[in-house]
Amino acid sequence: MDIFSRRLTSSFLFFLFLSFTEAKEILVGGKTDAWKIPSSESDSLNRWAEKSRFRIGDSLAWKYDGGKDSVLQVTKEAYASCNTSNSIAEYKDGNTKVKLDRSGPFYFISGAKGHCEQGQKLHVVVLSQKHRYTGISPAPSPAEIEGPAIAPTSSAAGLKAGFLVTLGVVVLGLF
Ligand SMILES: *[C@@H]1O[C@H](CO)[C@@H](O)[C@H](O)[C@H]1NC(C)=O
What span is annotated as the signal peptide, if there is one (predicted)? Predict the structure, then answer.
């Protein structure tokens, strides 16, 4: 391998590594006009959320007409009953970003009258730290990620170290 392709390969691996660790901004529904009453169950935002992966530090982003709609972050109970009267947070600027700063469930409903009842709601579950680096679907077990040379550990730091060692071995193998 010549020096140029070595450099290219190591930059590629470096960016691949970044893509595993960087916090992402995730557009809700994957497109700009997704915050609306779904036309069918299969079109619902929760179907989209089930296929997506949310990690601590990622942000959700909504784009909508702030004059007509809003995003309410609510409790599980308010989410289930579409109760808009006591939200945890209310956003109506049309360009809403919410940072997912902890693991566990987050519940959002539309503040527009009657919209939540017709399915305009979103439930996302943020994975806990120990699942952070299982970024590939279907998710490999921590042991697969760390490889046989490293003792199993449940800490995120251990996983990260394991990934770095694996990456190091790959890079060294190329040179
Ligand atoms: C909505 O929630 C508020 C506060 O929790 C509660 O007082 C109210 O009764 C609820 N409304 C309905 C229709 O359930």
Answer: 1-23
86 in ligand 1 pocket by Cβ < 6 Å? yes
Mutate to test the pocket of ligand 1, among 82, 86, 113 (most ligand atoms within 8 A of CB): 86
What are the DSSP calls for 72-113, one per residue?
EEE-HHHHHHT--TT-SEEE-SSEEEEE--SSEEEEEEE-ST
Q: Which DSSP state fits 128?
A: P
What domains, with CATH codes, occur in the chain? 23-154 (2.60.40.420)
Single pTM value for the model = 0.67
Report the Cα–Cα distance between both ends of the chain, in Å, rounded: 8
Q: Which of 126, 130, 137, 139 is CA-nearest to residue 162?
A: 130
Q: What is the DSSP letter of 49?
A: H
